[in-house]
Amino acid sequence: MNPTTANHARLDEWLDTLAHETDQARHSALFTAYLGAMARFWSYSRRNSMLIFIQRPQAQYVNSRKRWEELGYTLKKDQWRNSIQILCPHFKKMRDDAGREEETLTHFTTGYIYDETQVEAGLHAQPLSAPWSASTADAGDLFDVLHRTCTRLGVTVTERDDLADALHGYADGAGHIVLNSRHTIGDRTQTLAHELAHEVAHPRNKRGEFTRQQVECQAEAVSYCLCTAMGLASPNSPTYLALYGVSRETIQANADAIRACVHTILREVERATGQQAADAAA
Fold it and tell me: Where are the domains of the chain?
């Protein structure tokens, strides 16, 4: 079996394992562990973040050998055979029936990447830190970053003091989030992450694509990924019972939706913090 075929089989096997897991607690723990990998490797596709997690669950920071060298690192001599295999898509430009040119996926090949534990830093190695790490030192900083990200995504945020204590906040599906201003900054930050997930992944015209339970599950998963990626601990242990006892295809569809939302938001977080740094240096 060639490596590309083997990697597709790895994905199928892992999804089957998750779909057929009969213990709810283990199912939730396994999915949560995968979400941690999605948070770390948000710029990778859903397939590749899964492949990284399957092959090296504790990986924190990965790159190709060439990219490591550009960053000032060299591969350890005993590690070049121990690569993490990922799928590299190949596209071809084709014309549709209307004559419009579009890129069509034709096939995958195998790519090879390495974790930070497999390389050694040179004299001028660049630090390995998220682009927003200097801007999210605490919940207040993270709240400000998420608020700026909402603005970049065309979402308005309002804080009100007349909401019931039990109501953390809500999103209307039309670009507006309301938060309970009487809650702590940490609670408001997590609520903002959760409701922003709804606004990005579940606008009103798309909320019928998944069950209500799966929509809430996706938002909670996205919030968990955002907080994990930016260093804000979640006070609650997430559970994903909406994805328990469902088919592999349903898990895959939900994972795709979660990953797409995480990527969209963190890409804008990256841009927002980059703009903040540029403004501060000006």
Answer: 74-121, 128-281
pLDDT of residue 137: 56
Amino acid making up residue 62: V
Cα-atom radius of gyration of the chain, to the nearest Å? 20
Confidence of residue 241 (pLDDT cuts 50, 70, 90): low
Higher-pLDDT residue of 203 and 52 is: 52
Q: In what order do the strands lie in the sheet with 84-95?
A: 62-64, 101-115, 84-95
Contact (Cβ atoms closer than 8 angstroms) between residue 262 and residue 225? yes
Torsion of CA 268, 261, 213, 57, to 10 degrees: -110
The verdict on pTM exceeding 0.90 is no
Instruction: Output the average pLDDT for the chain.
Output: 87
Name the residue among 250, 262, 188, 207 with its Cα closest to residue 35.
262
DSSP letter for 91, please.
E
What phi and psi values does residue 36 have, to the nearest 5 degrees?
-60, -40
